[in-house]
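Intended use. Records like the one below are meant for learning the mapping from a protein sequence to its folded structure. Do not use them to infer anything beyond what is encoded.
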Amino acid sequence: MPGREDRCIICGEPKRGLAVREDYQIRTIRWFKKNVTRNERGYSLVVCKGCYPKYRKAKDSYNKKQGIYLGIGVLFAFFLGAFSGSNILPAIAFGAVVIVFMYALAQLSYMPDLVTKREGKKEKRHGG
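Structure written out for the chain above:
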């Protein structure tokens, strides 16, 4: 959006950089800050050039944790269902809760994607 100050999500400084994609997690955080804490500043989120290596490391770590946590949740749900005997429906329900919990744990290290060049061109063409 025009008029927004660019802020790096890693160092927090007002700098220009690669734009962060506005996904549902960021929209949820913005909604919470606007409606609950009344502290939404409306910054345009970026990753500055100096912080890109830190961002890449954090993004790779987040992706790895997301896969590992979901895998552990699915394995736990599978074994729970396999060894539940005649109580299969409660085991499936509890297994689904475990999978959701493990996914939520992965979100503690959330790191958003960056806007690609193709998306940036589309925004300029259609969003202007």
